[in-house]
Specification:
Shape: globular
Order of helices and strands: HHHEEEHHEEEHEEEEHE
Number of strands: 11
Radius of gyration: 17 Å
Number of helices: 7
Helix content: 25-40%
Length: 239
């Protein structure tokens, strides 16, 4: 059973600020917020006002691209995509648990890896970094195993696994023949006691469900990156 991100954050607080470990990893914890938004609905307004302001920097998802996924979509100009290998983390955790001499440290390391690389029914597959474009945040793509679960159920489970989420607002959308579900919500950091806006979309494909999530260092950064998120949603296609 995978360990929740909330439990890991509590463990980290007890182990003398292992924040340096999280900074070098890909995942949810890096996006702990800093500023308190007036409301989650403001992010939708920001997206609609500036949706066309971002230029495409290419398409990812197809075979041979930076991230091979069950879907393709455009990423914003200057954003950089990189695949996430969850298999390597699993192998390392399993190896460390056999006779390493420090089982508690190994367990904590595996809990951190689990919390960063898995959320609800999906696993991290791709990270699209906004820093080269001047923002602090990521579009993260999560994928799951094929099944009969619908997009709404997948997305609800994804949000429920993010300890600190509240005021969720769900809606539906269509893009490239796909019927998807979107959620906009607030996330409150347990350690920092601060709140920020986040958003995610989910679709189901023959190859399994896909979640695309946008966080950001704080609400201002999140809103600044919404045009890139909207570009991804608008250009989404099944492979």
């Amino acid at each position: 059973m995978l360990v929740g991100a909330g439990r890991v954050r509590r463990r980290l607080a007890q182990v003398a600020l292992l924040a340096g470990v999280l900074t070098g990893c890909s995942g949810v914890a890096e996006d702990d917020g800093t500023k308190t938004p007036a409301s989650a609905s403001a992010s939708a307004d920001a997206a609609s006002d500036s949706d066309t302001a971002v230029k495409s920097g290419g398409t990812i998802g197809a075979a041979g691209s930076a991230c091979e996924l069950p879907v393709t979509f455009d990423i914003a100009e200057d954003w950089e995509a990189e695949a996430i290998d969850t298999g390597a983390a699993e192998d390392k955790g399993a190896a460390g648990g056999e006779g390493s001499g420090d089982s508690e440290k190994d367990e904590l390391a595996q809990e951190i890896a689990d919390a960063l690389l898995y959320q609800g029914p999906v696993a991290a597959a791709c990270e699209v970094d906004a820093k080269p474009a001047g923002n602090i945040g990521f579009l993260r793509v999560w994928t799951g195993k094929p099944g009969d679960v619908d997009a709404r159920t997948v997305l609800e489970a994804f949000v429920a696994a993010e300890n600190g989420a509240s005021k969720e607002k769900y809606s539906t959308f269509k893009a490239g023949g796909l019927a998807g579900v979107e959620v906009k919500y607030l996330y409150t950091s347990e350690l920092l006691e601060e709140t920020k806006e986040e958003a995610a979309i989910a679709v189901t494909t023959e190859k399994g469900p896909v979640v695309i999530h946008l966080g950001g260092m704080d609400t201002d950064e999140h809103r600044a990156m919404l045009p890139a998120y909207e570009l991804a949603k608008r250009t989404l296609r099944a492979v």
